[in-house]
HAD-IIA family hydrolase
Amino acid sequence: MRWVRPYAGYIFDIDGTLVRGSQVLPGARELVDELRRDRRPFAVMSNNPLVPAAAHAARLTELGLDVRTEDVQTSVTALLTHLRVQPRGPVYVIGEPPLVEALHEAGIPQSDDPDRIACVVAAFDRTFDYAKWTTAFRAIRRGAELIATNADATYPTADGEIPDCGGIIAALETSTGHPVSLVLGKPSGSFLDAVLARMALPREQVLIVGDRLGTDIPMGAEHGVDTALVLSGVTTRDALASSAFQPTYVCEGVDELRPGRTPVPPDGRVSGGSR
């Protein structure tokens, strides 16, 4: 049996890793409790722009996971930081009311006039339609920057996956001929740096745990952090075999990552995984 070595700190994806809908995945409560007990810093991260950090913490706490607001980093947190540090003028949000309200509360000016829009923010939006597409298209064609909260292709729900922000980005890039200039959430280096700074740990002592080959694993592989892919979410072993990014570890779920306790079977680790 091969063991996953214990790390000084852990960064977890939420959906598909710790929980699935209202279901806590096996071992998640025990793992979080052990990390608290051992005083090992951890963070949870989400590209979901609809849920504030405090709401993520409340939801996880209600499910029995000892997660606090300060443990949560979201794509919205990263977006607000970026817009405050580098203000550009009015933004146009392709997103749902919680994101629009978050920007309003932060004092970020917004507009739906293509002649005034300085920046188009693309996010997960189940109300995305031709009118929103056209407003963004015209603004970008007139010089507005295109940025995004995340580039996930799909979003997991209790009823299966649904389209996420990746398709919206593709529509805007294809129609305008202008590529997205910045993605604020996973797998961006700035998102990771913000989490590491809050944990006060060097990247060599941290393990990123997630279920997505398109975000969680590349974030570690491209920025020098070990990764563990859990198969409790959207990724299968067949998809892993053809992936350009290979994790340091492959596990059925987070129960196999409990520090110093649970062994990973010999075939559960990917040899020569990308860093």
Summary: The CA atoms of residues 124 and 165 lie 5 Å apart. The chain has two domains: 2-47+186-268, 78-183. Residues 262-275 have pLDDT under 50 and may be disordered.
